[in-house]
Amino acid sequence: MIKPTPNPPIRLFTVADGISTEDLLINLSETLASANALSCDLAFNLEGSKREEWLGVAQLIELAQLLADRVHEWFGPAITAA
C-alpha cells in the first residue's frame, strides 16, 4: 500500500539547548549577512534574468535581517538584563 503522505524529513541540524536568545539573534544576523554576501556575489557574476533572480534573493535576505534587527531592538534590553 502506498502512503498518502511521505514521512517528514530527518533533521540533520539542530540548535543546542541552553543558548541565550541574544546569542541566537547574533548568530541569525551573522548567518543572514553571509547568505546576503553569497547571493550578491553570485548575482554580480550573472547577467539578465538570473542576475535579477539572485538580487531578489538578496533583497529577501535583507528583509529578514531587518526583521531580526527589530526583534533585537525590542527584546535586546530585556535579553541583556536577564
Automatic annotation (TrEMBL):
Q: Name one Pfam family in it.
A: DUF6124
Superkingdom assignment: Bacteria
* Name recorded for this polypeptide: DUF3077 domain-containing protein
Q: What is the organism lineage in this UniProt record?
A: Bacteria, Pseudomonadati, Pseudomonadota, Gammaproteobacteria, Pseudomonadales
